[in-house]
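Lay summary. Proteins are chains of building blocks that fold into shapes, and those shapes determine what they do. In this project we predict the shape from the chain. Here is one chain we studied, written as its sequence of building blocks.
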Amino acid sequence: MSDTAATALLDRRGKYNRSVSHVNDEFHTFRSYLRWMCVDQSNAFTAALSWSVFLLLAVVVPAASHFLLACPDCDGHHSRPYDGVVQVSLTTVAALSFLCLAGFVRKYGLRRFLFFDKLCDESETVRTNYMAQLNRSLKILSVFVGPCFVVECAYKIWWYASGASQIPFLGNVYVSDAVACILELCSWLYRITVIFLVCVLFRLICHLQILRLRDFAGFFHVDSDVASVMSEHLRIRRHLRIISHRFRAFILLALVLVTGSQFASLLVTTKHSGSMNLYMAGELALCSVTLLSALCILLRSATKITHKAQAITGLAAKWHVCATLDSFDGVLTDGETPMAPQSSHETVFPNVGTDGESDAGDEEDEIDTTKFIPSYAYSTISYQKRQALVNYFENNRAGITVYGFMLDRSTLHTIFGIQLSLVLWLLGKTIGSF
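And here is the predicted shape, written in a compact code that computers can read:
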């Protein structure tokens, strides 16, 4: 091995070791959080503990709460006619999230699952922003879990304190109510945390790809060769396929389960003969908001990265046009006066009007903007190569897919149209029968 190759290998290995060391320091808090949540299955003991906690808080406690504390003889404020739908909905989605998370961590490991083993090949900007996003993930998780848990705490404490349950299974009514209330709250907190945790991790992984796409867009603003652009885009497409393959079953099953939960909620509320009030249907509404929020995190993250990936096609087409215009500057055509040669390699294009707006602000796409791309020695890339690259982007659109279906905005519109049709049909069957 030559000295130059050995030096390059050592530099690469040193860069990788710095990344690994930094990641391990940051992962200490995250791994501790997974252990406290009892979803870490790194060895036999933690796996047994994880499954035991899951069966207790996600299956046994909700089932006991529903069958022992259903309170069919309570008044209108304390009866829980929709508790079955609430418990089944939360348990099924939490079971799906738990199985997927445990399988991902056990099969790939946390670092490989979150693509931290690939950070050594990324730029410093991507690594820094991704580490910052990792640190924000637990805060984002608490933003979604905290309000839902506070509302559930207020409802459960009121329900038990007002004397709805009088089952002294521990010998004393007050001790029994306190234990039952704590177990129900722990079960609720555990299930919604597991649900949101998988969604937030998916959002984190998608954010890494968005950072890479922003970094990739810089290739079109400097003098880059087609081979390097093609190679980087193929690498991004490969990672997007990996993400799609890992999460396709989870996204599809989550969509089916949440949709089924909403239809079941609609069915039981329209069929219920009693009066509807906040005390009876408040927990059902909170469950629906929780599940829909988790589903929105999944779909928004997937459609956002698909939109950013497809914006590269427009950026490449604009780059091709600007380079073509630059290559024809100064060319003599029939009936035209010869133009003076350019004194600089950079062509300055006119500014695009804003139609009376001073600044586009957040309305401007951060990858495919409405600004011209200045040309930097684009004569080194032929027209045929640029055209071939644009054709490649047009026929190889990247994004998150679910069994071949691209999760973009048109797909969301289709899903919304199908669900709206089903809702109207269900309402016609239930309300029309009264």
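What the prediction tells us: The radius of gyration is 28 Å.
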